[in-house]
Amino acid sequence: MTTTVSAYAAPSAAAPLERTTIPRRAVREHDVLIDIKFAGICHSDIHQVRDEWGGAKFPMVPGHEIAGIVTEVGPGVTKYAVGDRVGVGCFVDSCRECENCLAGDEQYCLNGGTGTYNATGRDGEPTYGGYSTHIVVDEHFVLRIPEGVELDAAAPLLCAGITLYSPLKHWNAGPGKKVAIVGMGGLGHMGVKIAAALGAEVTVLSQSLRKQDDAKRFGAEHYHATSDESTFEQLAGTFDLIVNTVSANLDLDAYLALLRVDGTLVNVGAPEHPVSLNVFSLIGGRRSLAGSMIGGIRETQEMLDFCAEHGLGAEIEVISADRINEAYDRVVASDVRYRFVIDTATI
Fold first, then answer.
1. What is the enzyme's class at the highest EC level (predicted)?
2. β-strands 222-225, 85-88 pairing
3. Would you list the DSSP string of 193-237?
4. How is 145-176 classified by DSSP, letter by letter?
5. Structural domains of the chain sorted by starting position, each given as residue range(s) with its CATH number in brackets
6. 307-325 per-position pLDDT tens digit
7. C-alpha 290: how far from its chain's center?
8. pTM to 2 decimals?
9. Are the beta carbons of 243 and 191 closer than 8 angstroms?
10. Are 291 and 267 in contact (CB under 8 A)?
């Protein structure tokens, strides 16, 4: 048995998103039915809808920043009850048996995790994301949203928040560490907030100075424009950790030169085209170039609890569903401070 719910979907890569209906499975033994209240718009939604990364499955219902309320639970559910405030992030299943899953790194499932949308579940059915009124998810992949974070501001934490929290924790951002965040968009602004809350000395590297006041308000101590060539001379050999959040191709050699000995440049933004670098940029300072995805379920819950403890949430602009296509264009133009969130009551 399935239920039909309202959603916004892209019928093809060249078409705007439009209102439609999609099937949702009946609640199984360990499933949770969530009444979605808010869904964040991530830049990766746009990449996938426009098939810029390849492998797009249409019709596509994007959305992996989901916040809502539990309205039904399966008979075997033990973690959640009707009325609980919950969220769903970038994946809704994994094998749960490989070494990565057992270690709590389900995002790196060796047998392939199941994306919240644009994927095929282990039941052979396509997955549809959060631009909809309801979703059914196994309780293992559902997160509890603490009372200290409003649901609308919590939605982007399920992707943007954990995408920055995971590398900042893994590479030990904290007191005594100099951390640079490249880009002050949906990802970057959360990186500033989280790195500052962890106790690091935070610098923002952005194309212009127009978001400098915001960055300082979020906890950054320093702010530099990357369009100014003197920035790279002034900051050479400065940082222990640089987290690059932008999805454009950058001059990696220039950014690697900003690292101290044993420093690391971590990429969380995913550019459309391959990148290149001179390996001497790594050899010269025993520097590392790394990548990071989201976190596993345990770490994502840790992030949500951390944000509640420190009063952190995303800076958002709540929109009605009929403005999704406009919002996509504005995201591409960097015209949002700092995350669009869909009020799903308007779907």
1. oxidoreductase
2. unpaired
3. HHHHHHT-EEEEEESSSTTHHHHHHHT-SEEEETTSTHHHHHTTT
4. PPTTS-HHHHGGGGTHHHHHHHHHHHTT-STT
5. 2-157+314-346 (3.90.180.10), 161-291 (3.40.50.720)
6. 999 999 999 999 999 999 9
7. 17
8. 0.95
9. yes
10. yes
